[in-house]
Write a structure and sequence with these properties.
Elements lengths: L7 E3 L8 E13 L6 E7 L6 E3 L2 H16 L7 E8 L5 H41 L4 H8 L3 H8 L1
Parallel strand pairs: 2-5
Antiparallel strand pairs: 1-2, 2-3, 3-4
Helix pairs in contact: 2-3, 2-4, 3-4
């Protein structure tokens, strides 16, 4: 196995005993010699074989079906695939910059979801504590900057 193309990374749950494999596929668009049709070809870095399709979607499906065969890994092993797209007249950096931006956005969205979940729990605890202290719905809502109906939902 090539350590450049398939790497072991710590499982996202923090369980260092569990691991996930990663496979890098270089994707390019080329014209088939026999038919002249434009196809997408994926070559695994450090492994023999290839995958292909008339569309990127077909290529991705084929890589998913073949990734364990390409790497020689047990079918039960999780393998995440990283794609490097090489499109004529489009610098690789353009797609990488987009992918990094999208990953940053996705992480920010996940952080926001987590913060909202935490805030909901704190809001319920705060609203309940204010009601238990004898505050009216109107006063509790004003203290928390909420509508009376939202405060009432949180405190019950």
């Amino acid at each position: 196995m090539s350590s450049d193309s398939i790497r072991t990374i710590a499982d996202a749950r923090g369980d260092t005993a569990a691991s996930q494999k990663r496979l890098t596929i270089r994707v390019s668009r080329e014209q088939a010699l026999d038919s002249g049709v434009w196809v997408w070809t994926g070559l695994p870095e450090g492994y023999p074989g290839s995958a292909g399709g008339r569309t990127v979607g077909e290529l991705l499906e084929e890589v998913e079906a073949l990734k364990h065969f390409m790497t020689g890994e047990d079918p039960a092993t999780e393998i995440a695939v990283d794609y490097i797209y090489e499109v004529a007249d489009v610098p690789v950096e353009v797609l990488l910059d987009y992918q990094h931006g999208r990953a940053a956005r996705d992480k920010a969205a996940e952080d926001l979801r987590r913060a909202n979940d935490e805030l909901i729990l704190k809001s319920r605890a705060t609203a309940s504590a204010l009601r238990a202290a004898g505050l009216s719905v109107r006063d509790g809502a004003a203290l928390m900057g909420l509508s009376k109906s939202r405060f009432d939902q949180l405190s019950t």
